[in-house]
Write a structure and sequence with these properties.
- The chain is mainly alpha-helical and 178 residues long.
- It has one domain (15-166): Glycoprotein, Type 4 Pilin (2-Layer Sandwich).
- The chain is built from three helices and three strands; from the N terminus they run αααβββ.
- It has helices at residues 12-63, 67-71, 93-108, and strands at residues 129-131, 145-149, 162-166.
- The chain has a three-stranded antiparallel β-sheet.
- The model has no long low-confidence stretch (mean pLDDT 88).
Length: 178
């Protein structure tokens, strides 16, 4: 009796099963990678904004001025409302306001602020923004300065914004803490 040789290679069904398994694994990896990237972006924003808050705190202390007095503006972020900030050119007024504010802050710190030039944009390519409020309505006012990122969607005043209060400077001791 003659034996039949089994065919070499894969059947079409076997090939489809392998492709389905590879596709499932790839989609799981991509979802996990996206979540890790988003977490890294959020961590980067948090770290960078904390660095800027530290620079502002030092500048206010050394200059004995409020942030409004340093930047010369009470709303550096006002030109940034209602537009998609992701990828706006460096010549846009919103980016220019941030750059000018950071230069003025660095100028108030003896020896400048190291690495301040690198803190221009958030991970989604939008400029960071200040809203200078402390002392806006006189020394009795307990308003806070803020720093923020528009977040992944690139628009301000939305749920994904990163928004930090900057602690009061000296002379605002009558204000409640954060």
């Amino acid at each position: 009796m003659k034996r039949m040789k089994s065919p070499k290679g894969f059947t079409f069904i076997e090939l489809l099963i392998v492709i389905a398994i590879i596709g499932t694994l790839a989609s799981i990896i991509l979802v996990t990678l996206g979540a890790a990237r988003e977490k890294a972006n959020k961590t980067k924003v948090h770290t960078e904004l904390k660095s800027v808050i530290s620079a502002v705190t030092v500048a206010r202390f050394e200059a004995q001025k409020t942030l409004i007095e340093i930047t010369g503006s009470s709303c550096s972020n006002c030109p940034c409302h209602s537009i998609d900030l992701r990828g706006i050119p460096d010549t846009h007024v919103c980016q220019k306001k941030w750059d000018q504010a950071m230069t003025k802050i660095s100028d108030e710190v003896k020896g400048g602020v190291e690495g301040i030039d690198e803190l221009k944009r958030d991970p989604w390519n939008s400029p960071y923004m200040f809203d200078e409020n402390e002392g806006e309505h006189g020394s009795d006012s307990c308003l806070f300065d803020h720093i923020k990122s528009a977040g992944p969607d690139g628009f301000t005043e939305t749920a994904d914004d990163f928004f930090y209060r900057i602690p009061h400077s000296e002379g605002f001791d009558h204000c409640p803490p954060l």
